[in-house]
Amino acid sequence: MLYNKRLYYVLIKAFFYSENYFEIAQKFYCTRTQFGLTLAPILSHWPLAYRTFVNFSNDRISAIYLGNEESILRSEQDWLNAERGARYRDAVHIALPGGEVWLFDYGIAVFWGIDEDERLALLHRLNLAEGLLTKASQEHFRFTLNAPESRISQDNISLAQDDHLARLAISHALAQSLKLNEYESQAQQTIQDHAHIPQTLAETGKIKLSRRNIAKIRGKLFSTKSDIILHYGLLDTPEFFWEYPEYESTYNLAARYLEIHPRVDLLSKKLATIHELFDMLAGEQNHQHSSFLEWIIIILIAVEIVMFGAQELQTLLGW
Question: DUF155 domain location, by residue (predicted)?
Answer without folding.
Answer: 101-267
